[in-house]
Design goal:
Elements lengths: L1 H30 L9 H9 L2 H8 L3 E6 L10 E9 L8 E8 L5 E3 L4 E2 L3 H13 L4 H7 L7
Antiparallel strand pairs: 1-2, 2-3, 3-4, 4-5
Helix pairs in contact: 2-4
Length: about 150
Amino acid sequence: MNANRSLSARAFFVTLLLGLASPALRSADQTRSPSHSPLALHEAEILIYVLPVAVDLRKAGNDVAWRLQPNPSDNSDDYFHFWAVESGASGSASPNVGHYAVNRWTGDVWDDVLESPVTGPELERIQAILRKAHGIDARVISDYRSRPLHK
């Protein structure tokens, strides 16, 4: 009888512990990043808006405008390609700000001509927010960061 009571008591406590632990396990499960999803066009446009060059233009009293500009040679499956210009530019200065590509899967921004990454404090903060919202973790970044800009 004592063996049965001891077994029943153990079973009761194990069940109790599992019952108490299951909400904690569920909440831990909910904090894991969901399966990743690509950035939407409007999110890529936000990244263009906070490019360091755009921030500098706004500090000088101008602004930046952009246009989606895919070319047949671009890797449009993995990137949004933009042409950015200075809006409000006066005189004979070229309004061209540059050509940029935003990786749909990582949020990385590239200078599309130099094929080099673009970084900056505001840009990196927005990238962190978008990556969290899209479940983009280090593994996803590693998998998608090396995708070519052009075909």
